Amino acid sequence: MPNENESSNESEDSPKPPKLEDLGPKVDLIEDYRGTRTIYNDLIHTELKVKFDWENAYLNGTARITLSPWYYPTNKLVLDAKGFDIHSVALESPKAAAPDLEYEYVDSLQLHITLDKTYTKEEEYTIVIGYTAKPNELPKGGGVAITDRKGLYFINPDGSEEGKPQQIWTQGEPESSSCWFPTIDSPNQNTSQEIYMTVQDKYVTLSNGKLMSSTKNQDGTRTDYWKQELPHAPYLFMMGVGEFAVVKDEWKDLLVDYYVEPEYEADAKAIFGKTPKMLDLFTEQLGVPYPWDKYSQIIVRDYVSGAMENTGAVVFGEFVQAKTRDLIDFNSEQIIAHELYHHWFGDLVTCESWANLPLNESFATYGECLWLESEYGAYEADHELKNKMSGYLREAERKQVDMIRFYHDQPMDMFDGHSYNKGGCILHMLRMHLGDDAFFDGLKTYLNDNRHQSVEIHNLRLAMEKVSGQDLNWFFNQWFLASGHPDLDISYDYDAENKVSKVMIKQMQDTDKTPVYRLPLKVDLYMDGDKVMNETILVTQKEQTFEFKADTEPLLVNVDADKALLGTKMDNKSLDAYFVQFDRAPKYLDKVEALEVIKGEERSDRVVKVFMDALNNDFWSIRNFAIRNYKFENWEKDADFLGALEKIAKNDPKSRVRAAAISKLSKTGDKKYSALFKEIFEKDQSYRVMNTALSSVGELDAEEGLAMAEQQEDNDNLLMSVLSVYKEHGDASKGAVFERAYKTAKDGGDKWGILSNYSDYIVRFDDKTVDSGLALFEDAALTGSPWWVKMGAMQAVANVMGHYQKQEEELTEKLEGTSDAAEKTKLTDKIAAIAKRQQVVQGVMGNIFAKNKDERLMRGFQNMMSQ
Questions:
Q1: What is the pTM of this model?
Q2: Beta strand pairing status for 295-300 and 254-260?
Q3: How crowded is the C-beta side of 306, counted as CA atoms within 13 Å?
């Protein structure tokens, strides 16, 4: 996890950077006082020839690397090469056999090579390295966004895991490409590449660039030659090997391919099929054509991140792999758009250092919203921006750091809710401030001025200033180069005598740590009839009052009418104003802000009307909000609402809204809805809806729910609802279903849900059943994958402990309230038995803590339990 105590202020005790003149011609790199690298050689071209040793999970490789001094003459080269066996290091010479070079392999992390002479920046040289990479023997590590850093992964290499394919894939970001080939593993490097991959003939391969040739060898192997002529950073190098179905698509003259497991070949275009449309959108908006020679997307098993934007060869985790019917409930369009947008922001123009990661990730995050806006409308994009801001604000409760920060402990610290969520919201504010034309023209200039180069945040500012003519230092200083966010207190008054409407704004954030913000804001004043007065204000002080001429008191004064501001606010509007806001203000966030306030009010005809209107809104999220937050008074009085819910449950175009309606109806406790839910279960094609219907039948009619659940035990798509019924009503024999479900589940979220349901189930039965569950939880806490499944297992153990603690409290209360001696003895014995069971559970948790060495996981679990 990121360091919560980071500071952008240099300590007086910080070591000072060495003087350049002290370095001498033999120094290739140093670690300076900020932990960033100064590099004295520059990659030009990388050629790799690799073969795979599946049995040992090794890569046997030859690297041919062409370089030139960056600026200063040097006779030294330092390459990152983590955990290799180095067989040879030689200088390629056209005149004679390649002479061996002297080298030192420092801590099995870096090759310090002495060249044959001192080279100048006008000269190129090529070295050839024979090596074996051993990724499984590297120390473990990782972060939240990328959970491991082996670089090269052998999946099920011996074929022993039934139902799991054998695959090889790579993950280079941030600095793990040097776990499988020697390089200068820094984002400010740019190198063209060639990769020759020798594999068994049954396997398909994928890498960056185009497949130039495929040659069958006499030993039953095949060598595929992939070449990318345009340069990119080493962390974007990619290899993939496995038995994949390759589904061809195209965009203009570009190859667009989808690599999926053969079972999903017919579904590949349903998963990825909007990629060409995304290419159209981004190329048109940015005015910069897609810059690479192909675009392939591949889904792999056991991936250590969500997805990765390797140039022209994007890798996705298996959660993206789905049957076409599954896509009724979810799709991966946002993450597909995210990785595609990186091909401009990150791949074509790359952050100069990981301190500048927002130049990659903030843009890709905002790219998701641009796709949603284009494909589904402004409400969908604003809904997602709200989610992203909420994610950042949750992180900001425990950590507030500069967006651009050189003081991170390790590169992975940068992959957080600031670089992604906050950055995406900042870019949206910049767009709203400049206007669409200037914003996208600025991005075009930024990309064209810096293509195939590495950049800092100032390059973006300068491009935006070049186009707009505005001085944007204030914007970049407060949003990218400072921490925190504005926290506004907004109040209103009307001076009837002078016919002036007043808005008072106070910036409440701690200005010792956070700026006093400069905030250009739009303010809309809603008057009687359809009249709306549009004003613009500039907040520059900690406290300011703004006045607007208004002949009558406005019904609503809507500050931040664009609803683009990143921050928090106490908006002291009247309740009447919020009703007007819901009715008349046009944006998604206008509606949601109003509903959030109105939902807390006492029930009235006016409140009911708003929720009925929301229930009929065109946008699914507003309908969903109304369903979840409507307050019932009694079922007869709410007949109209219930009638609307029945229609929504059967007919709403959005499956999650249909499911929400079913769930709300089940809260009535009226068994008459069981027949409706069963009908929906049999007709609806959405697994989300079917799962909700089955669970809801179980809530209303245990016998009917059990009967339906038992018929679906073998249906993986309905397993979660089956288990939800069993945890409440299943007998002791159903434990085997939970055990089997966990062992066969592929998705980490499903595994978490299974563990949670199982913990609720086992406590209904005897000690033997509980012990069986605890054994599974302990194993999952130590071996679960992905890493957060381990946390789910620990949570399951904690749930069991919580059950016993509750029992003990209830029995103790009874003991204190009785004077009957026999009853006291009985209760005392029960409390003692529970105490023994608590010791068993504590022993399981203690064993998990003793054996689990992942400090990040332990801290995360402790934080979760303390909340």
A1: 0.91
A2: parallel
A3: 11
